[in-house]
Amino acid sequence: MSEPVSEQNEVLLRVSGVVKTFPGVRALDGARLTLRRGEVHALMGENGAGKSTLIKVLTGVHTPDAGTIELDGAMISPSSPRDAESLGVSTVYQEVNLVPTLSVAENLCLGRFPRRFGAIDWRNAHRRAERALFRLGLELSVTRRLDEHSIAIQQMVAIARALDSDAKLLILDEPTSSLDESEVDRLLALMDRLRSEGLAILFVTHFMDQVYRISDRITVFRNGAFVTEAPTAELPRIELIGRMVGKDPEALRVREAEVRARHRTRAESESLARVEGLGKRGRVGPVTFEIGKGETVGLAGLLGSGRTETARLMFGADQAESGSIRIDGDARRPGSPREAMRLGFAMTPDDRKAAGIIPTLSVRDNIVLALQSSKGIWRKLSGAQQRDLADRFIALLNIKVSGREQAVGTLSGGNQQKVLLARWLATEPRLVILDEPTRGIDVGAKGEIESLILDLAEKGVSVVFISAELEEVVRVSQRVVVLRDRRQVGILEGESITEHAIMSMIARDDGVEIDHG
Amino acid sequence: MADRSEGRRGKPVAWHGGPVMQALIWPVAALALLVIFNVLFTPGYLSISVVEGRLSGYLIDIFRDGSSVMLLAVGMTLVIATGGVDLSVGAIMAIAAVLSASMVTPEWNEANLGGWANAMLADRTIAWIGVVIAASLVASVLAGVWNGALVSIFKIQPIIATLVLMVAGRGVAQLVSNGRIFTYDLPALEFLGKGTILGVPFSVIIVALVAFLAIGLTRLTALGLMIEAVGDNDTASRSSGVPVRAIRFMVYMVSGLCAGIAGLIESSNVSSANANQIGLYAELDAIFAVVVGGTALTGGRFFLVGSIVGALLIQTLTNTMYAQEVRPEIALIPKALVIVAVCLLQSPEFRRKAWGVVRPGVRVGGKA
Question: What is the residue-wise DSSP string for A446-457?
């Protein structure tokens, strides 16, 4: 961890009372942020906390409805990313925002080429590019195409470009999510170097370890509102996680006693499958756990911890590079969703819109799709079968539709989720993987989906359940696999499953528990 | 608009029971307007007579002249429904046409296939015509395989992938005929374009068969559902177990086959095959027909009947220009205007702006 920043460091940026509303959503609700020169400031929060919206306000993508932004003693209201850059606010996004097929020098000089007699002065451009990179401690051939370099180098070129324009504040939005460990080290070293030059860095990430390695201060947002600001050294991990998910670790301990009392521990159930060291480089490390018949296994962890990645590997949506799933006495590694379906697996994805629903098709079409796919093109379910299936699930899951022919895209989120569940339940799977089935749906629908999971378990169907809400995971799971920074950090079973236990596992710093209570 | 009454009763209803009707309403309306225009200004427009044992009249001409656009539209509909497009159909028509014309030219056979082919052409003409047709259609399907491979295996954007064959295909056709234009005098082959059965043009019967088969294959099997699913959301389709790659492959093959049949009909109409003329710009008419027929270029729901109506609309327009003796170079302008008008009518956005009203069914959400 770095030196604690002295409070005397001059304040560079002061955001106060920023409100931003979109139709139906209050994305920022009195956001507050104070950045000092020469500090790395981590902005933390779960999904929908408002981090991205705040960045977009700072970079002039969005105009706030209320509130003020003060940079270097002057009120600013950037009108565009370009405007923000000229004011000294530069941003590097998760996805490298450069032109991969142009050379490094071209990328660095794009839009501001040095000119000589009206033509581009290439020698000067190359020299400038080399100088900009040298400042970051990078020496590379600036005439080579950008995409010939690794993602980490591309990321650093993006930073070099951002710094080229007299930046005072550098915003790094999830810069490390596509980097491997040594590349992360390199990037953090670079951040350290820039900090010592007096630059203020706003670091948005969901990697706990990196936050504690590099940042001086942490600001936590939740549901668009400011929650807390504290020096990193004074905010233990468990506290931080508690603030992010909105739970007081102490209060939890009391309540959990009741939950534990109610918690059903299933009698030793027969094993259905065993996930053995399933992993893919850069996505998620080896994950190993057992799934019993009729058992619900929760995957817990913060956003980006590898929950979704694990689910995708299990279902063949991404191809695992190592490990396998032991089922029916064989070691299998599904190469596609079709193969996983043949094993009796089903999965509802976390990204309902992009990977789940077929929006313009009817509820009936959406429900029969997976079953029809497994039967093949030629053995079409008859009209009557399709109608029965659709009507049965509409009634069973209480899907609110005007009729089975309504287009799925016009349904509410909760009902879309139920249609997806119906699609998979229709295939009568042995194992259902539910990735964030309760995200973005109303409380009533959440409860219904939870009780549906319990019903499934009663019927002997195994469930892998992923949710950002630990409370839900604790309620439905007989076993919880805890993930952090794309690695499995532990497994909890039966009575030991509590929100507090999960949180402290996530918070544990390389095997040493910070908070034993 | 039967749905309107349904919507009034009880809960609001989305346009179900009627996506097909909704897709059809505008092209059918435009077609009706055009026919009315013709009835008023072209004497004897509706009359159908029997001349030398075949039906004849303006309306029959539309069907006969429009048969190749209708065929292309059938294949194109499936391709567009997957979110793709097939620009190469005109060139595939040329390949099929030139290959068929070449294979009934003794000189070409002598040079390329050997004497046996000519012996067969002379002695067992009908059987040889069968071989010729089969060979031409196989070549067309192979062209479709090429497109399908580029799109589904190598993930090249459809517009680029099929542009390759659109440009190169005519070169292939030239290569086959060595740059020559063969003409023939073979009633058996000419029957495709000029023949009639019970007075009905044979080409129209082919179109009916192909359309019937396509509708049957897509709606009686799960093919239609899967094509629509792939076009609407291919990620979701893949994760629901839909064989996305195979579906993509298949639609380009079907499109190639349809283009091949269309090429054979076109060339038998004129008893010759000019690699540079057959099917020129036909891909554009086919795309128009599909879009006018209610299938969105972005993929998803498709309407084969709509596409056929669209093809008829385009042909009616063309024929109207002939009937009104509009000079060909000017005829394109009214044609373009009508197409733009139909496309605008189909856009709910335009209708809203134009009339400040939306038909009740369109905007229903039924949100829970």
Answer: HHHHHHHHHHHH
User: Considering the domain boundaries, does residue A349 fall inside one?
Assistant: no
Q: Which residues of A touch B12 (CB under 8 A)?
A: 402
Residue B15 lies in a domain: no
Q: Are residues A105 and A175 in the same domain?
A: yes
Pairing of strands A462-466, A296-300: parallel
Q: Is B239 on the interface with A (CB under 8 A)?
A: yes
Beta bridge partners of A190: none
Nearest by Cα to B195 from B207, B208, B204: B204
Cβ separation of A358 and B233 shorter than 8 Å? Answer: yes
Best A315, A365, A377 member to test B by mutation, with max B CBs in 10 Å, is A377
Closest of B268, B286, B271 to residue B91, by C-alpha:
B286
Comparison of pLDDT for B252 and A245, the residue scoring more: B252
CA A340: distance to chain centroid? 24
Q: Find chain A residues with C-beta within 8 A of B220's C-beta.
A: 380
**A146: how many CB neighbours lie within 10 A of its CB?**
22
Number of structural domains (chain A) is 3
Partner B contacted by A406 (CB < 8 A): yes
Domain housing B102: 20-37+53-354
In a domain, B27, yes or no: yes
User: Structural domain tally of chain B?
Assistant: 1
Domain, as residue range, for A230: 11-246
Structure tokens at A474: 């604790």
A74 found inside a domain? yes
Buried/exposed code over A149-183 (b: 16+ C-beta within 10 A; e: otherwise): beebbbbbbbbbbbbbeebbbbbbbbbbbbbeeeb
Q: What single string gives the DSSP state of each residue in B101-114?
A: HHHT-HHHHHHHT-
- Measured between beta carbons, the chain B residues lying within 8 angstroms of A419 are none
pLDDT of A245 over the 80 cut: no
- Written as one string, the DSSP assignment of B194-222 is H-EETTEEHHHHHHHHHHHHHHHHHHHST
A445-483: pLDDT as tens digits: 777 787 788 888 888 899 999 987 788 888 888 899 999
Tally Cβ neighbours within 10 Å of residue B352. 14
Look up the CATH number of the domain holding residue B325: 1.10.3470
A177-215 pLDDT, tens digit each:
667 677 788 889 889 988 998 899 999 987 788 899 999
* CATH number of the domain enclosing A163: 3.40.50.300
Shared domain check, A369 and A220 = no
CB burial of residue A470 (10 Å; 0-12, 13-18, 19+): buried
Among B8, B232, B240, which would you mutate to test the A interface (most chain A Cβ atoms within 10 Å of its Cβ)? Answer: B240
Domain contains A1: no
Complete DSSP assignment for A399-447: ---S-TTSBGGGS-HHHHHHHHHHHHHTT--SEEEEESTTTT--HHHHH
Lowest mean pLDDT among B71-85, B110-124, B202-216, B246-260: B110-124
Contact B221 A378 (CB under 8 A): yes
B269 located within any domain: yes
Q: Chain B, 271-310: which have a CB under 8 Å from a chain A CB?
A: 300-301
Domain boundary among the residues A229, A246, A263 is at: A246
Query: How many whole angstroms from its chain centre is CA A217?
Result: 22
The position carrying tokens 């936590």 is: A220
Same domain? A324 vs A404? no
DSSP H helix total and E strand total for chain B? 18, 6
Give kind and range of the element (H or E) at residue A375. Answer: helix A363-375
What long-range pairs does A470-473 form, CB within 8 A, spacing at least 24?
A470/A245, A470/A247, A470/A300, A470/A499, A470/A502, A470/A503, A471/A499, A472/A438, A472/A446, A473/A298, A473/A299, A473/A300, A473/A502
| In-domain check, residue A3 | no
A102 class by beta-carbon count within 10 Å (0-12 exposed, 13-18 middle, 19+ buried) = middle
